[in-house]
Design goal:
Blueprint (H helix, E strand, L loop, with lengths): L26 H14 L2 E9 L6 H14 L4 E5 L7 H5 L16 E4 L2 E5 L15 H13 L6 E7 L6 H9 L5 E6 L3 H16 L4 E12 L6 E2 L6 H9 L3 E7 L1 H9 L3 H4 L4 H9 L1 H4 L9
Parallel strand pairs: 1-5, 1-6, 2-4, 2-5, 6-7, 7-9
Antiparallel strand pairs: 3-4, 7-8
Helix pairs in contact: 1-4, 4-5, 6-7
Length: about 300
């Protein structure tokens, strides 16, 4: 991993696109692209968490994946780019924590020794404040999170993107062209799976590797009798992943304790480490922990 002291001028990578300004690129655009690249160069792996539609528990999955990777001893940054509905601060119990700066950079909020967090939800005055921005403003703030936040050296940056295939996921994919790939979250029912198909097509059209699909809310196991009930069915995500030719990372069962933990601001995998759902999260992160640097689009 490159040192934080290393600059583009001293980089010995001949293939790096940040060393020299291409013909036709405005100087301001080049300097901003280089500033983003300098920050991202200190991060070994970048993983986007996407979903085709809302309501599938994507942010809950992103938070618990980030915490699981941090518990595995990795240095992790969690970036919430859901401008209109940032829920990561609430899920981690860090609402109201101040974001400090150095004059030249913003410092992410430290959730734990191994996990740093940044979200627009940490910058608004209260949870009732509405952020009413069009596409260009959202692109600008996402770029600022990458360019002006002092993430430092990380093993992983996990990005929680809002649902769909609109401005935010497209912006982050354009700003981090070297991203390792995306984890796509769905629930088992047909209406969710259909939207995830479009999300996978979106990834392919922008040459973003799909690391795999996670099926959330996959069945419910009663805590009293142990009987399993398929409230939203199960298996739809696995079947769709096989049809689309992408890896299936696992199923996360519906557990009321996940809701309780989320509302309490304590990640589920941290509070109920030995539970069935926590073990499913642990299995799901195996391909993330095994990531190796590979060319974009593979």
């Amino acid at each position: 991993m490159p040192s934080a002291e290393r600059s583009c001028e001293t980089c010995d990578s001949a293939a790096c696109a940040l060393k020299n300004k291409p013909a036709g690129e405005a100087q301001e655009d080049f300097l901003e692209r280089r500033a983003v690249g300098r920050r991202m160069c200190q991060i070994q792996h970048k993983v986007l968490v996407l979903s085709g539609k809302g309501g599938v528990g994507k942010s809950t999955v992103a938070v618990n994946l980030a915490v699981s990777v941090a518990l595995a001893g990795k240095r992790v940054g969690l970036l919430d780019i859901d401008v209109h509905g940032p829920s990561v601060p609430r899920l981690l119990g860090i609402e109201g924590r101040p974001v400090e700066g150095t004059g030249e950079a913003l410092l992410p909020v430290a959730y734990s020794e191994n996990l740093k967090v940044m979200s627009i939800g940490l910058l608004v005055n209260s949870r009732e404040d509405a952020v009413i921005w069009r596409g260009p403003m959202k692109f600008a703030v996402i770029k600022q999170f990458l360019k002006d936040v002092e993430w430092g050296e990380l093993d992983y940056l996990i990005v929680d993107s809002p649902p769909g295939t609109g401005d935010e996921p497209l912006s982050i994919a354009q700003l981090i062209p070297e991203a390792d790939g995306a984890i796509v979250v769905t629930t088992p029912q047909d209406v969710a799976v259909a939207d995830v198909r479009r999300c996978i097509t979106f990834c392919r059209q922008i040459s973003l590797r799909v690391i795999g699909v996670i099926e959330n809310m996959s069945g419910f196991v009663c805590g009293h009798c142990g009987r399993a009930t398929e409230i939203f069915k199960s298996g739809g995500g696995k079947f769709m992943a096989r049809e689309m030719g992408v890896p299936f990372l696992g199923s996360i069962p519906l557990d009321p304790q996940i809701v309780d933990a989320s509302d309490a601001g304590t990640p589920y995998v941290q509070r109920f480490l030995g539970s069935v759902a926590a073990q499913a999260f642990q299995r799901a992160i195996a391909p993330v922990l095994a990531l190796s640097v590979r060319p974009r689009g593979q």
